[in-house]
Design a protein that fits this description.
alpha/beta; 18 strands; Biosynthetic Threonine Deaminase, domain 3; Rossmann fold; four-stranded parallel β-sheet
Length: 503
């Protein structure tokens, strides 16, 4: 018998954990022509599944370890799970969180009685300081995923699913993947009881550590991770969780930001609850999988893993959900700069379609570049609209999936700059804390002129900042060496077609 399977059977979680319902999603089921069930881990007292693994680990500590107290490094759901578990057991808890952690999450941890230490700009820096405190204080570390008892705690979800589906013929269970603790636990239990049920992991395209690790047959360390689904933004999966995934997981599929956002909306329509981006991964995966495999009349289960959503992210989610539902398309179009051309474009191309956005600014007497959004059935009508533009003599590109345009360029269109020389463009991730911009600017040499700047808050721990610079020929290497010292993640977007068309 698998050791973790045995630990799941003997897990001690129900002093504090709810057996969450497995809800029928009527709207999703009708939409997808399959039966969709939602495992509602968003209904736990800490609004996520993380309470299971944290409590199971802490309750199994020895008496001496409990006297020492516990410590964890986390900016999110694991922090709340450890804090509430320690409070329930009367144990001291210290949680190290990055200074960029939203105040709502800091307050939630404090409310559960833990001491919060804010340190560093990101999880890695908080974790390093956590290790320092462990050496200095002797506090017992509670890992977020790569531990047998933590995995067993999460695996109790699998045990509950089996009890709740005695009359169901379950085709597949879809599980969000970050460090891998959740899928390792669920897969271990399910495959030891009903090996024919598929276990499918779901990751964001920009945080795909498990997908790549399974593909390469060894653990991969990502250079950078996405910031939208921050609950699964892990650069390297666990050693033990990876082994369990190799043993039991059928496959891992990837979904993008738009698909995640539209799935948050789908879940809201069925439950009237708003899950966090990581909590919608499983539904996004089911939608994609059903479409790719053309499946009907099957039963699928999605793990709604959490609902710790920052309120100020909702506008961004709503904006991206429209594209994720394939109800909007974005086009970059070059048209002649002549009187009446705008009207002609609307008559020949837009016709009966609703315009969702339109960006234009006089930049040249010869030609104009516009960014237009149309409300369409993307999969059925996109090709037809592109053909309309081509027939009318317009140069047009489908930029619906260009992330730079969706996050920055659409807000910056005001005509091409006629004066910038040797201009380069970067997309940065700044920690969302006071002084982050000044630190960046103070490290910049004054000879390098900033030629463009765009920032828009999305409610996460990091903000995406788009900056253009004038860098003389021969100085780019020196410039990028300085960027490495500042140590903010960045991507060189100079060759992105959006910059050439609109900036």
């Amino acid at each position: 018998m698998d050791d973790i399977f045995r630990l799941i059977l003997t897990a001690r979680v129900y002093d504090i954990v709810k057996e969450t319902p497995l809800d029928y999603a009527a709207n999703l089921s009708k939409k997808l022509n399959n039966k969709i069930l939602l495992k509602r881990e968003d209904l736990q007292d800490v609004f996520s599944f993380k309470i299971r693994g944290a409590y199971n680990k802490i309750v199994h500590l020895s008496g001496n370890e409990k006297k020492k107290g516990v410590i964890a490094a986390s900016a999110g759901n694991h922090a709340q799970g450890v804090a509430l578990s320690a409070k329930k057991l009367g144990i001291k808890a210290v949680i190290v969180m990055p200074e960029t952690t939203p105040q709502i999450k800091v307050n939630a941890v404090k409310r559960h009685g833990a001491e919060v230490v804010l340190k560093g700009d990101n999880y890695s820096e908080a974790y390093e300081y956590c290790k320092t405190l462990i050496r200095e204080t002797g506090l017992v570390y509670i890992p977020p995923f790569d531990d047998e008892l933590v995995i067993a705690g999460q695996g109790t979800i699998g045990h509950e699913i089996i009890r709740q589906t005695t009359k169901e013929d379950v085709y597949a269970i879809f599980v969000p993947v970050g460090g891998g603790g959740l899928i390792a636990g669920i897969a271990t239990f399910i495959k030891n009881v009903y090996p024919n049920i598929k276990i499918i992991g779901v990751e964001p395209t920009e945080s795909n550590a498990m997908y790549l690790s399974l593909k390469e047959n060894h653990r991969i360390v990502l250079d950078r991770v996405g910031i939208f689904a921050d609950g699964v933004a892990v650069k390297e999966v666990g050693e033990l969780t990876f082994e369990k995934a190799k043993q039991y997981v059928d496959e891992v599929i990837l979904v993008n930001v738009d698909e995640i956002a539209s799935s948050i909306k789908d879940i809201y329509y069925d439950t009237r609850n708003i899950v966090e981006p990581a909590g919608a991964l499983a539904v996004a995966g089911i939608k994609k999988y059903i479409k790719e495999h053309n499946l009907k009349n099957k039963t699928f289960i999605a793990i709604n893993s959490g609902a710790n959503m920052n309120f100020d992210r909702l506008s961004y989610v709503a904006e991206r959900a429209v594209i994720g539902e394939h109800q909007e398309a974005l086009y970059a179009v070059k048209i002649p700069e002549e009187p009446g051309e705008f009207k002609k474009f609307c008559q020949t191309v837009v016709q009966d379609k609703n315009v969702s956005e339109f960006h234009y600014r006089l930049a040249s007497r010869n030609e104009a570049y516009i960014l237009v959004g149309l409300t369409v059935d993307y999969e059925k009508e996109n090709r037809e609209i592109l053909q309309r533009m081509k027939k009318a003599g317009y140069y047009a590109m489908d930029v619906t999936h260009n992330e730079l345009i969706k996050d920055h360029i659409r807000y910056m269109i005001g005509g091409k700059c006629q004066f910038a020389k040797n201009e380069i463009f970067y997309d940065f991730r700044f920690p969302e804390k006071a002084g982050a911009l000044m630190r960046f600017l103070n490290n910049m040499k004054e000879k390098w002129n900033i030629s463009a700047f765009h920032y828009r808050r999305h409610g996460g721990e990091f903000g995406r900042v788009f900056i253009g610079f004038e860098i003389p020929e021969g100085e780019k290497k020196e410039f990028e060496e300085l960027l490495k010292k500042i140590n903010y993640d960045y991507v060189d977007e100079t060759k992105n077609i959006a910059c050439r068309l609109f900036l």
